[in-house]
Each structure stands twice: as C-alpha cells, then as structure tokens.
Amino acid sequence: MDADKKARELQISLDPVKPGYLNLCVRTGNLLITSGHVSDMKGVLGKNITVDQGYEAAQDCARKILRSVYHTHGTLNGLRVLKLLGCVYSMPDFTDQHLVINGASDLMHQIFGKDGDGYHARSALGFAALPTGAAVEVEAIFEIKAG
User: Fold this and answer.
1) Domains delineated in the chain
2) Is 8 helix (H, G, I), strand (E, B) or coil?
3) 4-40 pLDDT, tens digit each
4) Among 9, 19, 23, 42, residue whose Cα is nearest residue 131
C-alpha cells in the first residue's frame, strides 16, 4: 500500500497546515526538512503528563509533520524518513523521552514501513521548556527517492 493511502486509512488529515511565522517544510535538493511541529497537548512529562499521554502528543506532532510534507511535496509516496528529532518538555529527573518520541517513530513506521522507508535515525531529548508550553516538539528530514 502506498503512503498516501496508508495515511488516509489511519484517518490522518492531509489538509494543509496553516503556515505561521516560519516555513513548515522546505525542499533542498532531494530533501524535505520540516520545522519543529508542537503538540496541542501542554504540560510537563514527569509532572502532569504521563508517558502514554506524551506518546499521543508525539503522534500529534508526526501527523502535523505529514500534513506539512504532503502540502509541500504533493504526496507522501516516494519518500524515505531519514531523521526525527524529538524534544520533550520534562522534569529534570524524567528519563523516558525515548518512550515518548516512540509515538512519532511508530507512526512513521506505520506509514512508511518499519523495515523499509520508515526505518530512521532519531534523537529524543529532554528540555526545560518548549514553545507555548507544548509537551512535545518533533522535526523531521525526509529523502525524496529517485524514480
């Protein structure tokens, strides 16, 4: 199944995200690079947000990224996920950032295949604060495959 169909099957909207102050996704050569996309969920992991809630927040970020990529490129087909950077608003003693960002990675695996184009490099980091108090922010780099 192609990525566009898989996204729609998972009920992911591919309608454009209203751009703000910065470009949400830029193309350079055969790369699509996104800005950080923040979750609608606000709060701090390890304080008032659970890992499961953070996982959902990371999926929210990934859905927004897919919308931005689709709007810029016109399709999700023919793409390879190269890298995700996940930022988690968390308490200093919280150490499960990787479990939170699995929400974004798992969605990319579902859309592009865990053993194929969705198998990506990733960083998951904790932050003392994120813009607007968002629980999670994720950015991504995609390769536009030849052919």
Assistant:
1) 3-144 (3.30.1330.40)
2) helix
3) 999 999 999 999 877 778 999 999 999 999 999 999 9
4) 42
